Amino acid sequence: AAPLLQATGRAKVWRNMAATQLGIPGEILDVVDLVPTFTAERTEEALRDTGIRVPEFRSYAPRLWRYWAAHLDPERARRDDPEG
User: Which residues, 6 or more positions from 19, have their beta carbon under 8 angstroms from its beta carbon?
Assistant: First the structure.
């Protein structure tokens, strides 16, 4: 799959056309193998002397995921409006 995902030139155009036919924005294929890292270091630093503590991500991740899934707008990526 990696060569297909890392396509350039005409191959990328064909890849994006095929993805679009499947209802997938072609641009997403450029970042599908992205492995994000999330940290709370800056937030923890900002809150250090306030007595407020950042909760463990695993303590609220399932709730966050359920909210995202329930409110996902599948047409958002297809609109040209910067506001979504």
Answer: 25, 26, 28, 29
Structure-token pair, residue 15: 């890849």
The per-residue pLDDT for 60 is 94
Low-confidence winner among 6-10, 24-28, 76-80 (lowest mean pLDDT): 76-80
User: Residues with Cβ < 8 Å from 2, sequence gap 6 or more?
Assistant: 33
What is the structure's pLDDT at 27? 84
pTM for the model stands at 0.44
User: Can you read off the two tokens belonging to residue 52?
Assistant: 């407020």
The residue-averaged pLDDT of 21-31 equals 86
User: CB neighbours of 29 closer than 8 A, spacing ≥ 6?
Assistant: 4, 5, 15, 16, 19
Residue 65: its H or E element: helix 57-71
